[in-house]
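Note to self: keep these together.
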Amino acid sequence: MTDIHDDADVRREIVKDVMDAVMSGKVASIARHLAPSAVFSSRSNAGIIDAPWFGRMEGEFRLTGEEEAKAFLGEMLRRASYISYEERGIIVEDDQAACLCDWTRRDERNGSLVTGTTMYWFVFNSSLQIRSIETIGSIHSVIPAFNPEPAV
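Structure:
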């Protein structure tokens, strides 16, 4: 029988591993922690930067296996590569965990810098695998890329 504090420490390490993987784009690190049929739910106010792929990646997705999880997460992370991020804290309680993260990324279409915050909620099963991840992201600012006019 495991100690509840040991399980909390394991969950905290899994969340740290997943957060590092999300921010660095390492899909395999995330997929290996997901339970079969894990649910990924994502919401944000990303419409303000008018990137059409955000709409396709929002919603609730049931990932039926590791390969599907890798494909889904790979697409999501390919389109949102982060320049920097700061983990603001991890809370673990019972079979759940939460993490808040501030980030900066470059918009793939026009080179603008985008800053925001995302809250992540994790639910674990009894085998210490992630049963679900829910994210709610908020974009704080969009700084247009500088494109000097060509000299005439």
